[in-house]
Amino acid sequence: MHLRCALLTLTFLLASVLPAHSATSLMLDWYPNPNHATLNAAKTQGFFADQGLEVDLQVPADPNDPLKLVAAGKVDFAVSYQPTVLQARAEGLPVVAVGALVQHPLSCVLYRKDQGITSPADFKGKRIGYSVEPLYRVLFETVAGHAGLTPEDYETVRVGFNLTQPLLSGKIAGSAGAFRNYEAVQAELEGFDVGVFAFEEYGVPDFYELVLIANAKTVSEAPEKVAGLINALKQGTEWTLEHPKRSREAFFASYPDSANELNRRAFEATLPFFKGSPAQTRQRWEALETFMRDKGLLNNPVDLDTLVWQPE
Q1: What's the number of CA atoms in the CB half-sphere (13 Å) around residue 311?
Q2: The pTM of the whole model exceeds 0.85
Q3: 8-47 tens-digit pLDDT
Q4: CATH: 3.90.1150.10, 3.80.10.10, 3.40.190.10, 3.50.50.60. Which one for 107-201?
């Protein structure tokens, strides 16, 4: 009896000292891919658990779902895109950017080197495919304008997310919105020599390709959860950069279907873009917000003071 009482007392004391694991949902932006390696590292290496978080990494049924579900309070956190988050806030959705997952644009303008293209000016008289309307059409127009072209100098056509095959088959001369760590690698694996024009080098502000968002209510009512998540992601990022091979193998162990040559090369191509995450600055948000308003991509100004969360 005394032993049982002692064990119960010890259990109570441990429960009061050790942090209880808080169930936390985090929805990815797309199916699992190397862009999510640092989140997987935070989970598999116990960094989330060290912060008292039991994180469930969820895959969306539709890539439009994550932001909507965070805004509705149905999931705690989600991976989203910086321009999309600005548009959501301009429309009044209660989402807050709590950290950056990928520090720079992965999306770019992809082209075939065997088509005589050496600068964006060479797109004159050609057809360009783009993914999302109007964002990537406007981003391409900015790149082309930086090279002295006007929209009358080329034709744009929306191809959705089928960005590789129209380029490789010669139906389009460039793909705006292709990822330099994925579609470019895919084209190379198919035997094509391709190049990229980085948006941030041709008049577009350097933006975060992927960010983590939370509902404003979560940020105000559970700040310790937000801080814990970001602390764990910071550790996951540092561990991935210090042990890239181990991080890659941990990712493939978590998602065996992704263990192929495309994702192996994509993982290597993505690594440099993790450096500095999850830090984010108000200045970079302000630069993109100003750009998007100037280009007609935002209908209303965004209160950046309440959009951009910073650790204390």
Answers
A1: 16
A2: yes
A3: 333 333 333 334 567 999 999 999 999 999 999 999 999 9
A4: 3.40.190.10
